[in-house]
UniProtKB/TrEMBL annotation:
It is found in: Cell membrane. InterPro entries: AAA+_ATPase, ABC1_TM_dom, ABC1_TM_sf, ABC_MsbA_ATP-bd, ABC_transporter-like_ATP-bd, ABC_transporter-like_CS, P-loop_NTPase, Type_1_exporter. It holds the Pfam family ABC_tran. It is a multi-pass membrane protein. Gene3D superfamilies: ABC transporter type 1, transmembrane domain (1.20.1560.10), P-loop containing nucleotide triphosphate hydrolases (3.40.50.300). Keywords: ATP-binding, Membrane, Nucleotide-binding, Transmembrane, Transmembrane helix. The chain crosses the membrane at residues 34-55, 75-93, 150-167, 173-191, 254-276. Residues 350-586 form the ABC transporter domain. The keyword Repeat does not apply. It comes from Paracoccus acridae. This is ABC transporter. PANTHER family: ATP-BINDING CASSETTE SUB-FAMILY B MEMBER 10, MITOCHONDRIAL, ATP-DEPENDENT PERMEASE MDL1, MITOCHONDRIAL. Residues 35-315 form the ABC transmembrane type-1 domain.
Amino acid sequence: MARGTTIIHDRPTSKRVGALRALGPFLRPYRLQVVLALIALAATSAISLVLPLAARRVVDNFDDGAGLLDEYFGAALLIVAALALGTAARYYFVTRLGERVVADIRKAVFARVVTLSPGFFERVMTGEILSRITTDTTLIQSVIGSSLSIALRNMIILAGGLGMLAFTSLKLMGLVLLIIPVILVPIIVLGRRLRGLSRANQDWIAASSGAASETLLAAQTVQAYTHEGRSIARFDDVTERSFGVALTRIRTRAVMTAIVIFLIFAGVIGVLWIGARDVQTGVMTAGQLVQFVIYAILVASSTGALSEIWGELQRAAGATERLGELLAAEDALTDPARPLPLPRPVRGHIALEGVSFRYPTRPDVSALEGVGLTIRPGETVALVGPSGAGKTTVIQLIQRFWDPAAGRVTLDGIDLRDMARADFRQAMALVPQDPVIFATTALENIRLGRPDAPASEVETAARAAHAHDFITALPQGYDTPLGERGVMLSGGQRQRIAIARAILRDAPVLLLDEATSALDAESESLVQAAVNRLSEGRTTVVVAHRLATVKKADRIVVFDGGRIVAQGTHDALVAEGGLYARLARMQFTDMPVLPEPA
Ligand SMILES: Nc1ncnc2c1ncn2[C@@H]1O[C@H](COP(=O)(O)OP(=O)(O)OP(=O)(O)O)[C@@H](O)[C@H]1O
Ligand SMILES: [Mg+2]
């Protein structure tokens, strides 16, 4: 499984929660919301910190008469109302911020990945990318949308609470300070372990998504070879590993929780004990002790909450890191900083000069070796040769899906690497070897060739590609959804849609890779006639195994093992008696050794 190698397993170990800093650029546009959320956060935390003060007053002034008591309770009611409002405001701003930022991250990741050249997709499984866009962003959402604000609030309460503790009783506060480091040590030690585990967990989830999507996309092939059992076993295995890692994480977290809770409450009990003795001996009032205890509980519970949240933050840090990797994915192919414009009108002069190329996943095999090929404007050139000879590779290089290792590819005299890919690809129309149909209507599928084309032109293109008849026979004609990957169409019908698309594009350069290979003889000759008409006045590169379809080309270029072994017209090549003559002899069975009469 060559594509099973992923970006996830060859990475250095994860960094700290600081990885969350990468979210900064996504938060920046929403500064105002961040500020509002922080204000609400600070306000509610402050109110929480004031409440114990009120409690002490009530306790210490219990005997002072009804008037004062009523006032205290009235004030408490107001404080509680403010707390309620503040909390609602915090929830609103913070949650909204989380949703907003994650929507932006999803968009950014998709926009980045969709532009990457084929080299990237040979390394990473698409299912894995999808998992990153969904599960990893969900983690980040929970962090920005709640964990982060809970963490901040608890930090404020912790700091404020400690301050108020000191204000209430320095002696008891000193005790608390002794206890806190004892609580923090297990949090830090176990937290480090948690972070690695949570990242591994997400990685396995991504891997299992990758495995699942690959199998589901090929469900029929899997079933035809009764491979379901193995596919299920493979998915089970990956999923179980993910569970295994999750289990270790949960165990670690459970142990951590037990230790932290015990330490916190043991500390509180100890402090209380000493405080109670102080009240007995009159060193402090009952109200002071009540106040102290409430602060101590606030401090303790915020420490506990922080330890919980810390794990969340670490999980999100891992997720941020992975998404950051996608966002920062280096593309081997880039547009130049200052691209040269392709001069219009485009003439369509294509040249490959001393081009050698190896696919990065197969560096030992030369896909093309020293290929020199010039295609003049308006010329129709056919590429023929045995399977694996390098024909599709030539077509891909002409569109700059890969860069040659040596030599250069030019269009109208300009190196493709000096232009923006979107610019010169606009001048090209491609019918690929395995045409792709999208899950939209027939109309929209053809319109991919030129998104602003009116319906009438779409129909003209469909007629030329002999697709009109079968499209109108579909339940809703041109508005029929063609199903995911065009499952509703036959192979030949898919090809005709792809040809209609290319016809509609009306580009100066036409690239046809086995464009009519799935058609029956009659449709093929009809479509071929349309393609011939289309190729008039355009530079056309045709790849075909059936030599009957390329006989009329201006020039035939024969490839073998990544090299050009011969070129010329059909007749000249047959007369030459090389590889082409051999292929021709096999295909035109009634033809003897001699070239057929012109
Ligand atoms: N994406 C890829 N990664 C690695 N190797 C590849 C890739 N695509 C093609 N190859 C290899 O490069 C060589 C040329 O392939 P290419 O697709 O250009 O052949 P072709 O002439 O179009 O064959 P066919 O007639 O079967 O379509 C082959 O050896 C093939 O195995
Ligand atoms: Mg091919």
